[in-house]
Write a structure and sequence with these properties.
By secondary structure, the chain is mainly α. It is built from four helices and no strands.
Length: 88
């Protein structure tokens, strides 16, 4: 009986752990995407923002843990616009 109680308490403690913080690469990727969205996203004729499918793909890759694929896309987008990259 004591083993069952101890196991249940252990599972409860493990289940209450805080979510892991995002890696630095994911945070960097999100920062690149935010800069792109705020300053470089083109506007349509109606004044609304148009989407950049490559940038959307890049941030999606980063959010899925594939930062080595997503970050270069966003860095390239910012470099082509001659926008300075943030500190990494």
């Amino acid at each position: 009986m004591r083993v069952h109680i101890a196991a249940a308490l252990l599972l409860a403690i493990v289940g209450c752990q805080p979510a892991p913080t995002p890696s630095r690469d994911v945070a960097y990727c999100e920062e690149l995407f935010a800069i792109h969205e705020r300053y470089l996203l083109p506007r349509g004729f109606d004044g609304n923002d148009r989407r950049d499918p490559r940038a959307d793909l890049a941030v999606d890759l980063c959010r899925r843990g594939r930062t080595q694929e997503g970050i270069p896309i966003l860095e390239d987008r910012l470099r082509r616009a001659r926008w300075p990259l943030p500190e990494r």
